[in-house]
Design goal:
Layout (H helix, E strand, L loop, with lengths): L1 H12 L2 H27 L6 E4 L6 E5 H8 L3 H4 L8 H7 L7 H16 L9 H4 E2 L1
Antiparallel strand pairs: 1-2, 2-3
């Protein structure tokens, strides 16, 4: 009812071309809002914390949601390994990843780069993440 009333009032004041422009603008705004909600809903997927096998040093409790909130782009990490449960473990078992490859080349490197840039970051040493 409200939209119909609004459209009826538009016809009194605007030509068909102007009416189309206004309708297109309103549609674009609604589409943008729906997209924002969809993207926000997509954040924080998966477990809040993920336990990653860490070898003899002990497992790593990875704060997954905290990284999603800070990084925003899943491909920052997931360009290297799939977005699935035990993705790292499966790749290591298949010989596609070497032990320490992700932690040293990706996690620790990113944390050190963030620290160098003066940004708050996670641990930069092995013992801070690995828990026995």
């Amino acid at each position: 009812m409200g939209i119909f009333f609004y459209e009826t009032r538009l016809r009194r004041y605007y030509s068909k071309g102007e009416e189309m422009k206004i309708s297109l603008i309103l549609f674009s705004i609604i589409l943008a809002l729906v997209s924002i909600v969809a993207v926000t809903g997509a954040a924080n997927q998966g477990a809040e914390q993920i336990k990653i096998y860490g070898g003899s040093r002990g497992d790593v409790l990875f704060p997954h949601h905290a990284h999603q909130d800070r990084l925003k782009d899943c491909n920052t990490c997931h360009a290297t390994f799939p977005q699935e449960a035990d993705g790292l473990k499966k790749m290591k078992e298949a010989g596609q990843l070497k032990p320490k490859q992700v932690m040293n080349k990706q996690c620790v490197k990113c944390h050190k780069d963030q620290k160098k840039a003066g940004n708050p970051t996670g641990p930069t040493t092995c013992s801070k993440c690995h828990v026995k």
